[in-house]
Amino acid sequence: MAFFSEDAVTGWQGLLRRLVVSMERKNDAEAPKGTSPTQPSSNYIPMTVETFDNHIYFYADVDTDRCLDLIRKIRETDNELRRQATSRMLPDDHPPVPIWLHIQSNGGELFTGLNIADQISKIQTPIYSIVEGMCASAATLISLAANKRYILPSSFMLIHQITSWGWGRIKYDELKDEMHLQNMLVEQLYSFYSKRTMMNKTTI
Question: CATH for 6-31+43-160, among 3.40.50.1220, 3.40.50.920, 3.90.226.10, 3.30.70.3420?
Answer without folding.
Answer: 3.90.226.10
